[in-house]
């Protein structure tokens, strides 16, 4: 089914998202938080509960999916291509956030199409965080549209240099089932039959944003001294599937101006699963 190119520029009506400590703890567990990260899991933690900034993808996902429907993308044929998050100030531990999403562009990748969705989330009418979602629509290309513009890498991985740090962490066999409690209920991540029909005979795959969260925790641990509020911006492209139970290996390279180049792979497999990944540390 062709995409609705005439809807480029469409912006949704504001959508409200109310959350509390239970929402935050569920998300933190979904991205692998452990007992020694109690500040992100327990509302009674000394000094108050902390928030992983990548939680920002959760309040914005419903608005982003609304835009995908406006674009005419078939949800059974989409895969997540990339994600960017920029945080303007620390996310509070509870509240009601308001998000709008815009269909920014649709690009022709011959066999596929790339749909770009941008969201803006506010709290008390003040900007809190922005996201950019790059979604690949399989079988929707070849319509003669523009190719995506060439963009310089935010933080190229240095050549001929070992990483400054490495974090290795194993996901659980139930990781996707836990992450989906935060709102992404696509059966591709839960139902073996759906996964097989989509070409994943090994079983349901892990959400790309779950892998994104695991890598963010590694960045915060190693590059921000465990202080999540220092992660100001973070982006990555999703290249290969991850299955629940896989061990993720995240490598970080410190660059100038607080930038970190990041690569995440699955232990025992040669190709990275997150590429063109970068973070800004304040």
UniProtKB/TrEMBL annotation:
<dbReference type="GO" id="GO:0044594">
    <property type="term" value="F:17-beta-hydroxysteroid dehydrogenase (NAD+) activity"/>
</dbReference>
<dbReference type="InterPro" id="IPR029069">
    <property type="entry name" value="HotDog_dom_sf"/>
</dbReference>
<dbReference type="InterPro" id="IPR002539">
    <property type="entry name" value="MaoC-like_dom"/>
</dbReference>
<dbReference type="Pfam" id="PF01575">
    <property type="entry name" value="MaoC_dehydratas"/>
</dbReference>
<dbReference type="GO" id="GO:0004300">
    <property type="term" value="F:enoyl-CoA hydratase activity"/>
</dbReference>
<dbReference type="GO" id="GO:0003857">
    <property type="term" value="F:(3S)-3-hydroxyacyl-CoA dehydrogenase (NAD+) activity"/>
</dbReference>
<feature type="domain" description="MaoC-like">
    <location>
        <begin position="160"/>
        <end position="256"/>
    </location>
</feature>
<protein>
    <submittedName>
        <fullName>3-alpha,7-alpha, 12-alpha-trihydroxy-5-beta-cholest-24-enoyl-CoA hydratase</fullName>
    </submittedName>
</protein>
<feature type="domain" description="Peroxisomal multifunctional enzyme type 2-like N-terminal">
    <location>
        <begin position="17"/>
        <end position="139"/>
    </location>
</feature>
<dbReference type="InterPro" id="IPR054357">
    <property type="entry name" value="MFE-2_N"/>
</dbReference>
<dbReference type="Pfam" id="PF22622">
    <property type="entry name" value="MFE-2_hydrat-2_N"/>
</dbReference>
<dbReference type="GO" id="GO:0006635">
    <property type="term" value="P:fatty acid beta-oxidation"/>
</dbReference>
């Amino acid at each position: 089914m062709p995409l609705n190119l005439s809807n480029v520029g469409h912006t949704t009506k504001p959508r409200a998202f109310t959350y509390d400590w239970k929402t935050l703890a569920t998300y933190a567990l979904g991205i692998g938080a452990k007992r020694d990260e109690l500040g992100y899991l327990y509302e009674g933690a000394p000094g108050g509960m902390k928030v992983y900034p990548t939680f920002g993808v959760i309040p914005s996902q419903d608005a982003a999916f609304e835009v995908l429907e406006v674009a005419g993308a078939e949800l059974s044929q989409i895969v997540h291509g990339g994600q960017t998050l920029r945080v303007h100030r620390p996310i509070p531990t509870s509240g009601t956030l308001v998000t709008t999403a815009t269909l920014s562009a649709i690009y022709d990748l011959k066999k596929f199409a790339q749909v770009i969705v941008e969201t803006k989330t506010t709290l008390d009418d003040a900007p809190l965080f922005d996201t950019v979602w790059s979604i690949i629509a399989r079988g929707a290309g070849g319509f003669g549209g523009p190719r995506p513009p060439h963009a310089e890498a935010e933080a190229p991985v240095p050549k001929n240099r070992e990483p400054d740090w490495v974090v290795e962490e194993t996901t659980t066999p139930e990781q996707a089932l836990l992450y989906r409690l935060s709102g992404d209920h696509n059966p591709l991540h839960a139902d073996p039959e759906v996964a097989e029909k989509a070409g994943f005979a090994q079983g349901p795959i892990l959400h790309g944003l779950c892998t994104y969260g695991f890598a963010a925790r590694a960045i915060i641990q190693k590059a921000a001294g465990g202080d999540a509020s220092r992660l100001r911006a973070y982006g990555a492209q999703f290249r290969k599937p991850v299955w629940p139970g896989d061990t993720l290996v995240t490598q970080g390279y410190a660059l100038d101006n607080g930038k970190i180049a990041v690569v995440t792979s699955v232990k025992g497999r040669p190709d990275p699963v997150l590429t063109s990944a970068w973070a800004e540390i304040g």
